[in-house]
Amino acid sequence: MHYKTWWRYGNANVEKHARRGFGKGRREVRIKVVGHPGGNSSNCVKRARLKVEKVIGRLLKPSEVIHHVNRDSQDDRNENLVACENQSYHMLLHCKERLTS
Ligand SMILES: [Zn+2]
């Protein structure tokens, strides 16, 4: 899927193109999106980032991190995602979770 296509047609396409990662553990779901500025060398972008970008209407900076509220990294429902401005803020969220749970 081309990045521009995803941007135009939204989340439905994101779900359809989702591929579960191989290997053990629940890893974040990545989607092949050609032309996305945040993609890696094989044009894969984390689905969580795509969804957040769609909601906030802009691209995430590479420094911004998506936190999964219920810690399930494959649960990319909007209500489970929190955008953190950087990794240290993300870690702060995890510390707070440890203190409150
Ligand atoms: Zn997190």
How would you describe the overall organization of this protein?
By secondary structure, the chain is of the alpha+beta class. It has one domain (3-100). Helices cover 37% and strands 14% of the residues. The protein is built from four helices and four strands; from the N terminus they run ααββαββα. The strands form two sheets. A two-stranded antiparallel sheet has the order 1-2. The chain has a two-stranded antiparallel sheet with strand order 3-4. The model has no long low-confidence stretch (mean pLDDT 85). Bound molecules: zinc ion. Zinc ion binds next to β3 and α4.
Number of domains: 1
Radius of gyration: 14 Å
User: Helical amount among residues, as a percent range?
Assistant: 25-40%
Poorly predicted runs are none
Described by its quaternary structure, the protein is single chain
Q: Provide the β-strand percentage band.
A: 5-15%
- DSSP E strands, number: 4
Q: Structural class per helix/strand content?
A: alpha+beta
> How many individual helices?
4
Q: Which ligands are bound?
A: zinc ion
Instruction: Give the overall shape, derived from the CA principal axes.
Output: elongated
Largest sheet: spatial strand order = 1-2
